[in-house]
Amino acid sequence: MLPTVNSPSTDPTQNLALEERLMSLGREVFMLWRNRPSVIVGRFSDIPAEVNTEFAEANGIPIIRRKSGGGCVYHDLGNVNYTFIVRDSKALTLEYFSRRVINALEALKINAVLEFRHNDILADGLKISGAAQYHHEGMLLHHGTLLFDADLSIIPKVLKRSGKVANIRPLLSRDMDTEEFMRRFSASNDYVQERSALHEVQRMGGKS
Amino acid sequence: MITFKKEVLYTKSNEWAEKVNDLVRVGIDDYSQASLGDIVHVELREAGTHVRAGESFGEVEATKSVSSINAPVSGVLVRVNESVIASPSLVNLDPFGDGWLAEISPDDLSELSALMDSEAYKEYIR
After folding, report:
1. In the prediction, which pLDDT does A90 show?
2. Which of A75, A185, A204, B109 could join A35 via S-S bond, C-beta 3.0 to 4.6 A?
3. Could you tell me the domains of chain A?
4. Is residue B7 part of a domain?
């Protein structure tokens, strides 16, 4: 299993900086983290076109750019973020990780499906999770959101383009709080262990 | 079907490099563009910047995925391809031709000898 980093911070700038620092160290890790209310925008997002900056400013919601691709998302403490930082390989597509996340959600009896166009994860046709990647100097950062118990009413106010989204918590057959969900979701980390083990076998086989 | 251009050299990070007069023209290869998918944004460092071999000189975004592009040789970025910045899909359509990214004036042309030819590269990505 990858070492797990549970970020103690809810400061979005600090958490994004922590991801980048871990990536620059070249160490493989799994990270779970939450941000206090903030808008996190993609590497090339057009902020004035995608974010209601007046609303964000009036409500003290910072707008912060990440290294990965994709669009703008709203975070608060009811949204759980996960990050895989691993040595890059072409097999580690967005879909590869989305499948792992779906498996982890299915273990919690959530009927999650992959939407192929954007690699979003949907439940009952509504987006519950999105992901993005950043490939740099042989390392891959794959991170994603899990809307668990977020204030969804803010999203159409702060984002100019927002799709239909839902929280995971009301879909659970047995209720749990966000902290318990984070502990249970860590199970998705197991699948990377399989991948690492497989690579090890292939590498040894290839060299002999 | 992935195309391998014989006249260029390849890096381990899937860029190609071709000597054009005194310059080294650089792009991403067909294998790389095919695995990235539709490229929607290209950003390159400004002409005049000095880059080291293996160092990032730009980024491309395919759907939700940003990838750094590394310089195959050290030198000064003398020209970036404005066409791919305006039309990123050129990288998908013609990665070895109109989809080239930049030209580098190399510090030391012998750095090219560290790169792979198309046969070695085919083996490398197999």
Report:
1. 85
2. A75
3. 4-207 (3.30.930.10)
4. no
Domain count, chain B: 1
- Which residues in chain B are closer than 8 Å to A133, comparing Cβ atoms? 64-66
Spatial separation of the C-alpha atoms in residues B21 and B14, rounded to whole Å: 23
Inter-chain CB proximity A131 and B64 less than 8 Å: yes
Question: What pLDDT shows up at residue A60?
Answer: 98
A204 in helix, strand or coil? Answer: helix
Kindly report, residue by residue over B81-119, the tens digit of the pLDDT: 999 999 999 999 999 999 999 999 999 999 999 999 999
A69: nearest CB among B54, B61, B70:
B61
pLDDT, chain B, mean:
96
Instruction: Give the domain CATH number at B65.
Output: 2.40.50.100
Over its C-alpha atoms, chain A yields an Rg (Å, rounded) of 17
Give A119's contacts in chain B (Cβ within 8 Å).
Answer: 63-64
What is the ipTM score, two decimals?
0.89
